[in-house]
């Protein structure tokens, strides 16, 4: 697959689908239903490794980090085909879409070249330490401290909602390096090894099936300045730079997950007027999201800056996921209330997780605030 | 047409149409800036811009007759009798000699008209038409065609032609509904920025901001769905029509609430948008009926079509 010019999207998809079909038995999850979290993580690593070795994973990533170049649309399609076939948990797979670009853009070229290939190939998993118990929507209020100590930094504090940190080798952490009142002007990002002494990971028990989130405690964690990502006190730009990546390719992957689930619902929906009306509405909603998401991926690849208008994408992603799972609940409520099979349990977990779609990655309320202030010119609250 | 041309066209169209003018006056003005030639040369762009702006301005027009007529091989300026309000597709004359239809503002009771049926077009004289009162927005009228009352010249057309005409109508209507929703949002947004209560513009209050933000999402969705229409895929037109119809419904609800008392008066322009959206919703199928129609099709197929690909 390694050629100098990128394949067209159609060609890439055709080659990928052919390979996925040919290797169907090899690449399929070894478990039924959702699997346990450790099983899902092993599967994720295995799938990425197979895709990396087969030459698909590198497309859409710069050659400096072991990639093959080419547009983001190629990695959008890769995730789409893999997610539609239920080979991986979509949200876990898509984390690469935000973590890799951040390091590529803000870390030293040496750091990016050393580590990004490990993430792409599935050899490593990374996590993101942003939110804190007192810092949710108001990210600029974070207080986990980074204190300069010679050529090193010493980190103290606590992060929460760090996805998959208990399985992660590295963590991108935002710290308070300015004064306590410095808000977005006094934040610095670091790329920390999770096996550094002083790091304690405690999984959070959440209402949906697996404990994929954790609290991470930093107790005098010493890291070298070479692990700084971006400028001192320049961490806000690092955090904001994540958004265009997340809201383009990662969102496209999520639409593929939603499409797969809606198709399952349609496959078993009763043939009556009520059901038809609800199915039609959910499909129209998904269609709106796909049209929007595709436009955003294309704008990204055209080099257009993605900004506040991606808050529309975020609202749509949350609304659509919830609408699809609301539909499933309406049509088969007993699967939610009285799950029997592995598939029922998976459905229950995914229904519950869909309730968080309007919460994580920026709540829908925050998105509406952004739309009002930045897109509708309504001034300040 | 490129983006610059389209913007120029939008501005030109906006400058010649008005909610205060009759449909005939608006259509004459559009004719004068070259609607006929544009529609012949670049139908998708012409329809998109003109119908979008008609919606934006809540302006009346009979141009939907040209859109449908052209798809059925009629001359420009022909008067078309569209399906009964609320029906998804043209009715049948197979078992009855009369048909319920909907007329646009072009028909004033004296001209011949071309009735779209499920099998083609029947050209009839005005004596065959019994016209009911016009709708609240002033330009759609229910009517009954009595085929026994006059000589009808029937032209049989293949089913694909009828489907294409229906699709063309829905596409134009989708653009107009999108424009209406965008127009409603702008009215409410401007009001929220200017109306002062408790020492602040009401747009400073989060409940108001969020209604307008939701409306913005709906309007953007309609625009994206219209941009994604595939000429080879009628369902992409139907979905754009549904999404635009939903945008008009959502905008109606949210913007009416933000506009509050002043928006409820006939002095304010909002009612023109609301009434137009209400009337247009039933042409070639209501948003709800079309949604259910697609749902039934998906359930019958048991799969989802992959309409939007990178």
Structural overview:
The complex is a heterodimer of chains A (381) and B (310). Helix content of chain A is 51%, strand content 14%. Chain A has 381 residues and is of the alpha+beta class. Chain A folds into three domains: 9-94, no CATH class; 128-235, Butyryl-CoA Dehydrogenase, subunit A, domain 2 (Beta Barrel), CATH 2.40.110; 247-375, Butyryl-CoA Dehydrogenase, subunit A, domain 3, CATH 1.20.140.10. Chain A has a four-stranded mixed beta sheet with strand order 1-4-5-8. In chain A, strands 2-3-7-6 form a four-stranded antiparallel beta sheet, with no helix packed on it. Chain B folds into three domains: 3-71; 80-150, no CATH class; 159-301, Butyryl-CoA Dehydrogenase, subunit A, domain 3, CATH 1.20.140.10. Chain B has ten helices and nine strands. Chain B has helices at 3-16, 23-32, 35-41, 43-57, 64-71, 159-194, 206-227, 234-264, 270-280, 287-301, and strands at residues 80-83, 98-103, 113-116, 120-124, 129-134, 141-146, 153-156, 196-197, 200-201.
User: Mean pLDDT across all residues of chain B, rounded?
Assistant: 94
How many E strands of chain A? 8
Show unreliable segments of chain B.
none
CATH superfamily of the largest domain in chain B: Butyryl-CoA Dehydrogenase, subunit A, domain 3
Main beta sheet of chain B: 7 strands, mixed
Strand order of the largest sheet of chain A: 1-4-5-8
Number of helices of chain A: 12
Summarize the structure.
The complex is a heterodimer of chains A (381) and B (310). Chain A has helices at 9-22, 24-27, 37-53, 72-84, 90-106, 109-120, 235-268, 273-301, 310-331, 333-337, 342-355, 364-375, and strands spanning 126-129, 145-149, 152-163, 170-176, 187-193, 199-203, 213-224, 228-229.
Which SSEs are present, and which pair or pack?
The complex is a heterodimer of chains A (381) and B (310).
Chain A: H1 9-22, H2 24-27, H3 37-53, H4 72-84, H5 90-106, H6 109-120, E1 126-129, E2 145-149, E3 152-163, E4 170-176, E5 187-193, E6 199-203, E7 213-224, E8 228-229, H7 235-268, H8 273-301, H9 310-331, H10 333-337, H11 342-355, H12 364-375
Parallel strand pairs in A: 1-4
Antiparallel strand pairs in A: 2-3, 3-7, 4-5, 5-8, 6-7
Chain B: H1 3-16, H2 23-32, H3 35-41, H4 43-57, H5 64-71, E1 80-83, E2 98-103, E3 113-116, E4 120-124, E5 129-134, E6 141-146, E7 153-156, H6 159-194, E8 196-197, E9 200-201, H7 206-227, H8 234-264, H9 270-280, H10 287-301
Parallel strand pairs in B: 1-3
Antiparallel strand pairs in B: 1-2, 2-6, 3-4, 4-7, 5-6, 8-9
């Amino acid at each position: 697959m390694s050629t100098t010019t990128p394949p067209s999207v159609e060609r890439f998809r055709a080659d990928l689908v052919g390979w996925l079909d040919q290797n169907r038995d090899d690449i399929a999850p070894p478990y039924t239903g959702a699997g346990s979290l450790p099983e899902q993580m092993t599967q994720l690593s295995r799938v990425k490794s197979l895709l990396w070795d087969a030459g698909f994973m590198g497309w859409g990533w710069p050659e400096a980090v072991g990639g093959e170049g080419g547009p983001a649309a190629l990695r959008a399609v890769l995730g789409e085909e893999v997610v539609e076939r239920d080979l991986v948990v979509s949200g876990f797979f898509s984390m690469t879409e935000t973590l890799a670009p951040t390091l590529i853009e803000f870390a030293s070229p040496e750091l990016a070249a050393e580590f990004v290939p490990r993430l792409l190939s599935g050899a490593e998993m990374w996590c993101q330490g942003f939110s804190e118990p007192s810092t949710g929507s108001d990210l600029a209020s974070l207080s986990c401290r980074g204190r300069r100590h010679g050529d090193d930094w010493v980190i103290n504090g606590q992060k929460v909602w760090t996805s998959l940190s208990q399985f992660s080798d590295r963590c991108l952490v935002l710290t308070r390096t300015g004064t306590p009142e410095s808000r977005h002007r006094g934040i610095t990002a670091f790329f920390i090894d999770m096996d550094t002494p002083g790091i304690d990971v405690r999984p959070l028990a959440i209402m949906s099936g697996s404990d994929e989130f954790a609290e991470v405690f930093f107790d005098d964690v010493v890291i070298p300045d070479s692990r700084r990502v971006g400028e001192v006190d320049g961490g806000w730009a690092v955090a904001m730079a994540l958004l265009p990546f997340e809201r383009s390719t990662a969102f496209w992957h999520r639409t593929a997950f939603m499409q797969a689930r809606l198709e399952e619902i349609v496959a078993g929906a009763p043939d009556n007027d009520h059901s038809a009306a609800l199915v039609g509405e959910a499909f129209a909603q998904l269609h709106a999201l796909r049209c929007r998401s595709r436009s955003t991926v294309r704008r990204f690849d055209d080099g257009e800056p993605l900004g506040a208008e991606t808050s529309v994408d975020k609202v749509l992603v949350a609304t659509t996921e919830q609408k699809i799972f609301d539909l499933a609940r309406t049509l088969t409520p007993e699967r939610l209330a009285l799950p029997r099979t592995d598939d029922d349990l998976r459905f229950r977990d995914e229904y519950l997780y869909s309730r968080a779609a309007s919460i994580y990655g920026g709540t829908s309320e925050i998105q509406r605030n952004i739309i009002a202030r930045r897109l509708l010119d309504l001034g300040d609250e | 047409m490129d983006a610059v041309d389209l913007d120029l066209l939008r501005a030109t169209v906006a400058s010649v149409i008005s909610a205060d003018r009759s449909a005939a006056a608006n259509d004459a003005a559009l004719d004068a800036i070259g609607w006929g030639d544009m529609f012949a040369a670049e139908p998708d762009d012409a329809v998109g811009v003109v119908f979008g702006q008609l919606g934006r301005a809540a302006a009346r027009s009979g141009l939907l007759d040209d859109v449908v007529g052209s798809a059925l091989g009629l001359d420009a300026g022909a008067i078309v009798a569209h399906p009964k309000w609320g029906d998804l597709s043209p009715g049948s004359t197979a078992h009855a000699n009369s048909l319920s239809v909907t007329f646009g503002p072009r028909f004033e009771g004296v001209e011949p008209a071309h009735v779209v049926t499920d099998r083609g077009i029947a050209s009839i004289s005005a004596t065959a038409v019994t016209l009911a009162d016009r709708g609240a927005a002033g330009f759609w009228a229910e009517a009954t065609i009595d085929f026994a009352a006059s000589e009808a010249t029937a032209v049989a057309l293949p089913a694909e032609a009828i489907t294409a005409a229906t699709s063309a109508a829905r596409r134009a209507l989708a653009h107009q509904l999108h424009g209406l929703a965008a127009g409603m949002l702008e009215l409410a947004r401007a009001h929220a920025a200017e109306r002062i209560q408790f020492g602040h513009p009401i747009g400073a209050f989060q409940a108001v901001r969020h209604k307008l933000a939701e409306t913005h999402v709906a309007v953007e969705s309609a625009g994206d769905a219209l941009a994604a229409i595939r000429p080879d895929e009628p369902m992409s037109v139907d979905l754009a029509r549904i999404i635009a119809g939903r945008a008009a419904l959502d905008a109606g609800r949210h913007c009416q609430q933000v506009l509050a008392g002043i928006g409820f008066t006939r002095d304010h322009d909002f009612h023109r948008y609301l009434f137009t959206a209400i009337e247009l919703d039933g042409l070639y199928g209501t948003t709800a009926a079309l949604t259910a129609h697609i749902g039934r099709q998906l359930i019958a197929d048991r799969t989802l079509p992959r309409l939007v690909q990178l």
